[in-house]
Amino acid sequence: xxxxxxxxxxxxxxxxxxxxxxxxxxxxxxxxxxxxxxxxxxxxxxxxxxxxxxxxxxxxxxxxxxxxxxxxxxxxxxxxxxxxxxxxxxxxxxxxxxxxxxxxxxxxxxxxxxxxxxxxxxxxxxxxxxxxxxxxxxxxxxxxxxxxxxxxxxxxxxxxxxxxxxxxxxxxxxxxxxxxxxxxxxxxxxxxxxxxxxxxxxxxxxxxxxxxxxxxxxxxxxxxxxxxxxxxxxxxxxxxxxxxxxxxxx
Amino acid sequence: xxxxxxxxxxxxxxxxxxxxxxxxxxxxxxxxxxxxxxxxxxxxxxxxxxxxxxxxxxxxxxxxxxxxxxxxxxxxxxxxxxxxxxxxxxxxxxxxxxxxxxxxxxxxxxxxxxxxxxxxxxxxxxxxxxxxxxxxxxxxxxxxxxxxxxxxxxxxxxxxxxxxxxxxxxxxxxxxxxxxxxxxxxxxxxxxxxxxxxxxxxxxxxxxxxxxxxxxxxxxxxxxxxxxxxxxxxxxxxxxxxxxxxxxxxxxxxxxxxxxxxxxxxxxxxxxxxxxxxxxxxxxxxxxxxx
Lengths: 250, 291
Known about the structure:
The complex is a heterodimer of chains A (250) and B (291). Chain A is of the alpha/beta class and 250 residues long. Chain A has a single domain (2-246), classed as 3-Layer(aba) Sandwich (Rossmann fold). Chain A contains ten helices and ten strands. In chain A, strand 7, helix 7 (168-183) and strand 8 form a beta-alpha-beta unit. In chain A, 46% of the residues are buried. The model of chain A is unreliable at 236-250 (pLDDT under 50). With 291 residues, chain B is an all-alpha fold. Chain B has helices at residues 2-32, 39-56, 61-84, 92-114, 139-161, 163-173, 175-180, 185-207, 217-232, 237-257, 263-277; strands spanning 130-132, 135-137. In chain B, helix 1 (2-32) runs antiparallel to helix 8 (185-207) and helix 2 (39-56) packs across helix 8 (185-207). The chains are: A alpha/beta (250), B mainly alpha (291). Chain A binds chain B through residues 48-50, 69-71, 74-75, 79-80, 82, 86-91, 95, 98-100, 102-103, 132, 134-137, 148-149, 152, and chain B through 163, 166-167, 169-170, 173-174, 176-186, 285, 287-291.
């Protein structure tokens, strides 16, 4: 469904992502994990069309995304939940959700039905429907951002750091929702620093370091990889031998 | 007492013109965060367009009205397409300079097309004046007030109840989020300029019969409209409406009770006072943010 071939992203003369290749199949939940500055969010911005200075190839359902503005990318079926939520703070929860369906041609009644579906998925949004979105808590805002992205009926949902700045309990709720969406057939790319939580719900994963993919494989294999554990999950085994089969080019 | 009532009626009438200009400015700011100092020139184009189509070519008034608004909106689209949009990630000061430059260009073009001589137009209808408690209201004043009310009301409904209106607000609130939501912000900006220039034209059309129309009438109209929008709180439609009325009424009372020479000064003194005491304007929308 989504394929990145040798993608390089630049900020002026600085190369933030260097030759990343990855693929996501229909129905998969794929995590891109890495530390701060690894290039995860740059990769997110590139897929979304926010960053235009990149080389290589990004294909969605076989068609290139090069030169497309973010609004066209959403129209093609990729919805994005950016880092920091980026909700429309002064607008109500209802209006935020409604705007999520901007690029979908549907009747007023159908839009209302979709909003009701989002409120079933996130009941707290139903309770806060007329409240300005800026007054919601961080977790509620994250739910709103996900709900707004889902209103576009995406074939691929890309989430950037959905756990950032949230309490562990809220993170659990958010990740349970992501897992539920995956079970409903939504293809998901999860760009996440919280490697443990991300891999726990993913099918596959990619580990990014200094702009390069250094490891890839099934989420289970990555989760068990001692190097990943030590670097990103926080457990420090006495001897951290890496699973060499997961290393790129191995 | 009659005099005071007369000042009030005149103030409401001229204030409604300021209100229409201010609504156009405020609407554009609300959607794009652009302060258009060429907005008064759209009002001038509206008035001069009506002078040509209704006054000289003798077209029926409704047709002249529609053609003028359409023509001025087209000028607005060209202005956005060739002066605003090419600037990538513009600094607010750059945009201010561009709009000031555009206003000079528009004035120059108008001077070449219509000349320097002022032109008068008759009222839209031949109904006589209405007298209330000794004060006189001309029918054109009522049309101006009605136009301001209809315009403010329509835009209010548009922003409150339509997806397009909400999308335009969203673009101004958070452009990045609007992009990621699939809202084409460039198209929204164009749409905002279209409505704004159209409403500027409407202001010009309604004021044309009660003023001497010249190529440079837009400068003062634009500045007064800007004052009214600031007084009401830039971005607030009803604030712009109320700001326009307040400005018009105070101007007329100032001109009548103090001196007609200080009429224009009142607007700017009032603006300075408001900016000092209440920088967000009298009716600025309260932001509700948790963080």
